[in-house]
């Protein structure tokens, strides 16, 4: 029997590849709102972050999510990410 392939994604801050389920997906929806996608299935442009408080802080400080998602990320999103840890 063939082994099931594990999807890999890159963290936008550390540039390291991890299994998709070990990362958190931030999505810019077609309506230009930003949400935290816990299931990984929401429509829109997504960016992945490693589940680490230091990575979240660095993403906020460098505004890397703003550049990748091409929209201003509200502070509420970073507060929600901190609660997930």
What does this structure look like?
The protein has three helices and five strands; from the N terminus they run E-E-E-E-E-H-H-H. With 85 residues, it is α+β, with helices and mostly antiparallel strands. Strand 1 and strand 2 form a beta hairpin. It is globular and about 45 Å long. The protein has a single domain, classed as YlxR-like (Hypothetical Cytosolic Protein, Chain: A). The strands form two sheets. The chain has a three-stranded antiparallel beta sheet.
SSE run: EEEEEHHH
User: Roughly what is the average pLDDT, rounded to an integer?
Assistant: 94
Q: What is the share of helical residues?
A: 25-40%
> Number of DSSP strands?
5
The number of helical runs is 3
**What is the total domain count?**
1
Structural class: alpha+beta
Strand content: 25-35%
Rounded to the nearest angstrom, the distance between the terminal CA atoms is 36 Å
The name of the CATH architecture is 2-Layer Sandwich
Can you tell me the CATH topology?
A: Hypothetical Cytosolic Protein, Chain: A
CATH homologous superfamily grouping = YlxR-like
Global shape: globular
Strand order of the largest sheet: 4-3-5
Largest sheet: 3 strands, antiparallel
Task: Supply database-style keywords.
85 residues; alpha+beta; Hypothetical Cytosolic Protein, Chain: A; three-stranded antiparallel β-sheet; two-stranded antiparallel ribbon; 31% helix
What is the secondary structure topology, with strand pairs?
Elements: E1 8-10, E2 17-19, E3 23-28, E4 34-37, E5 45-50, H1 53-62, H2 64-69, H3 75-84
Antiparallel strand pairs: 1-2, 3-4, 3-5
């Amino acid at each position: 029997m063939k082994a099931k392939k594990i999807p890999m994604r890159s963290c936008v801050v550390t540039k390291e590849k991890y299994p998709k389920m070990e990362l958190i997906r931030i999505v810019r929806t077609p309506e230009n709102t930003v949400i935290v996608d816990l299931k990984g299935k929401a429509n829109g442009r997504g960016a992945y972050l490693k589940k680490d408080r230091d990575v979240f802080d660095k993403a906020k400080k460098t505004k890397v999510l703003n550049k990748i998602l091409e929209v201003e990320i509200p502070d509420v999103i970073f507060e929600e990410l901190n609660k997930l840890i």
